[in-house]
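Annotated sample (chain length 600).
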Amino acid sequence: MESYSFLYSSSHRTGLLSGFQRLRSERKMCDVALEAGGVSFPCHRALLASSSEYFRALFGETTAERLAGSISLPVLKPEGLDAILDFLYSGWLSISPSTISVVLEAARYLQVETAVLICERFLIDGISAENCCCYANLAEQHALSNALEAANQTVAMEMGTLLQESRDDLLELNIQSLMTVLDANEIPGVKEAELIKLALDWLDENGPLPLLKSNLLLSRLRFGLVGASDLANLNHRAMATPLIRSQLTRALEYHRMGPAQPIRQSRQSTLRASPNRVLLVGGGSSADWPEQQVLAFDPGSKKFSCLSSCLPLRLRNHCVCSVGGFLFVIGGEEVKEGDEDGKKSVTTATSNQAWRYDPRFDRWEQVASMLERRAQFTCCVVEDVIYAIGGQHTRPDTDTHTSVASVEFYDMTIGAWRRGATMPCPLYGHASTVLDNSIYVSGGLPGNQGNIHGSNHGDNQDGNREGSKEVVYWDLKGRVWEKRASMSIARFSHRLATAHGYIYALLGMYEPFCDIEQYDSLSDHWTRLRPLLIGSFKYGMACMPSGNLLVFGGRRWRDGQEVIMKSVLEYDTKKDRWREICQLPRPLTGTECTLLPLPD
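Output written by the structure step:
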């Protein structure tokens, strides 16, 4: 059998189109004219039918237009038809922001899908705050799902600018886009009251709408983010439907829940906020004079900002945590400036106070105080319950320090603290974390030794004035704390964190080395890992959703003196790798960290 080859010439296809374009420009062999807006465009049936499903059907064997010399397309603009014909004859599509509408209309009407895809890409690449509403309407009109998604997202992210500079564009936005935007979990820099006003103004501008559509639009608003007095003043007719009235009633009930608000969160009361920020609460550039300003760290941009509201107290050796989008600041030593005999003095007193910060309204509120005064204790959250563990307090009248073994937890349903399972011995300067809904406590300075139930891993041989290696845990279902494998290093004022199913112990005070270690609860075993870059203590630490650990500031010894640091370190728990990612705005020590969503 004789062999043969298939050889392809890419220039032939280009030449074929060029030939048709030349014949069209010279008006030779054209067998049909397309008319739009009083303008005639001589064309070739064969090329049109081979490039468009619309023309293939139009020139079918049984249609009246099969032999017609002229075909009118009254729905198209001549500019749009001209651009699509140029594309069919050359492969080049001419688009600009001023012509995209008519070009897309012609491409969709004539079923030139390749041109439609090019138009969609043009929309996506060109979306900005100035045109996002217009492009969203175009994308919705022509069912361009990708462009519609991109335009809607831009509208949400640029809402603050649009409300100030392009409100008329928002009032012309199609209802599907507006509903999608009001569904967004992040709308930076815009208060919910502004979104409510926008929705009501849109209904006035585009109404009256069927009741179902009006309800669908308004039900996407988050009335729990609006103050009770402002809710009472919403008297628009569209708010009078049973569905919306019930949502308003639930929002008012939410405002009356008081202590239970964090555990009664719903979409209606959830902030439209950026992903979690790291809050740095308390501490300062001096170990003896903590600041009241609260720093917020954005892990994405690696930038710091300040909350507009300051911490009500100057605190050190306190604890912080977050529940349901609220920040809690608990216990610690309150530092005050006094005046004795005309001389300024600084006094400290152990506190049992608990404060709650609501980022929805930028407001601090004092909640029920703990049963005991605590400093150098730990707190952790299990299933939206805050546990305060151990610590010590100082009696101002005798200046004596008393360590405690007690545990208490904050019951938000009643807004009160209740007793939990007491630890085996008094303990302060320890660390705690949560793994599988169980609380683990390690290290610290113990008081009198007590009996610990559980596996035998050796007794604590350290004296009461030395840090402990011991680890105990409480699964909350039992009534006692149980012992687990001890750390390899005795630690005091250190940190514990949970990531990817493991517990990590980071260095504390008085440790000569920077070693950290990892605990596997399945094997009940600790493993040494790569040490920190720089040895420090009294630093802040946060565990990110990725599992990486961030370490903020702290103090270290240099040339026999304590130096307060500005470094922000990141530990990659999967790669066992440390790196410095940025610097604090100023040296910082004694801060406590937690994650909290914040409005921009």
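Annotation: The two ends are 76 Å apart (CA to CA).
Annotation: The longest strand covers residues 333-340.
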